[in-house]
């Protein structure tokens, strides 16, 4: 179970890095083009970046929840698998967005 939480934390941290890069690219595009599409992508990346930042805060620093995640006996395995899979799926989706944006 410790591996599952570490995978979830790593996926969330990678999402933050990738979303920050996307926000920079889409922000630059919006400044240059002033299109609604670029603005929509920028807002999307900032909202998803905020969500991942909050998730990482809960995983690592929140006084109550971080202790809960550190103790494998407190989190049911099925719940931890679900959280890890959601974070990994989001990482795959954000990775694909990075690929199509940079290409």
Account of the 3D structure:
The chain has helices at residues 2-33, 36-60, 65-70, 77-102. Helix 1 packs antiparallel against helix 2 and helix 1 runs parallel beside helix 4 (77-102). It has one domain (2-102). The mean pLDDT is 94. The chain has 103 residues and is mostly helical. 23% of the residues are buried.
Total individual domains: 1
Write down the overall geometry: elongated
Structural class: mainly alpha
Low-confidence stretches: none
Helical content, roughly? over 70%
Order of helices and strands: HHHH
Gyration radius, rounded: 16 Å
Number of helices: 4
Report the β-strand fraction as a percent range. Answer: under 5%
Mean pLDDT: 94
Alpha-carbon distance between the termini? 37 Å
Topology, number of strands: 0
Main β-sheet: number of strands, strand sense, barrel status? none
Helix and strand layout, with pairings?
Elements: H1 2-33, H2 36-60, H3 65-70, H4 77-102
In a few lines, what is going on in this structure?
Helices cover 86% and strands 0% of the residues. With 103 residues, the chain is mostly helical. The chain has one domain.
Key traits:
103 residues, 86% helix, mainly alpha, 4 helices
């Amino acid at each position: 179970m410790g591996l599952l939480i570490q995978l979830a934390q790593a996926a969330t941290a990678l999402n933050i890095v990738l979303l920050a890069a996307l926000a920079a690219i889409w922000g630059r595009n919006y400044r240059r083009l002033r299109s609604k599409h670029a603005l929509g992508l920028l807002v999307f990346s900032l909202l998803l970046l905020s969500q991942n930042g909050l998730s990482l805060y809960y995983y690592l620093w929140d006084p109550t929840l971080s202790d809960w995640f550190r103790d494998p006996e407190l989190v049911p395995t099925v719940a931890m698998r679900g959280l890890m899979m959601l974070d990994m799926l989001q990482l795959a989706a954000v990775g694909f967005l990075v690929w199509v944006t940079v290409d």
